[in-house]
Specification:
The chain is 61% helix and 9% strand. It is mainly alpha-helical. It has a two-stranded antiparallel sheet. It has a domain at 31-89. A hairpin with a 6-residue loop joins strand 1 (7-10) and strand 2. It has helices spanning 31-72, 77-89; strands spanning 7-10, 17-20. The N and C termini lie far apart (83 Å).
Length: 90
């Protein structure tokens, strides 16, 4: 029967010693530091998702505005955008 594996590792952030029970573990941070990092990561991911949603809303608002303008001119969206590009080109 094989002996349980344990080794002591020093946390790279706080310097605390902790026990690793897996022979193949690559743990570098103690459970307390890992918990803090994970909570920060969740906050960061949430902020990124909110920003992406806001950017998507802005682009959809622009698209809706162009579609309404095209309809007012009696054109399809594609025709209207082509006309705008032709006017910009000159």
């Amino acid at each position: 029967m094989e002996q349980p594996y344990e080794r002591e590792v020093t946390c790279t952030l706080c310097g605390a010693k902790f026990i690793v029970t897996s022979k193949y573990s690559r743990a570098k941070r103690c459970p307390d530091c890992r918990r803090i990092i994970d909570s920060d990561r969740e906050a960061y991911n949430k902020a990124v998702m909110i920003e992406e949603a806001a950017r998507r809303d802005r682009s959809m608002a622009r698209l809706d505005k162009l579609a309404r303008e095209a309809k007012a001119h009696g054109l399809s969206y594609g025709q209207y955008v082509a006309m705008l590009k032709a006017q910009q080109a000159g």
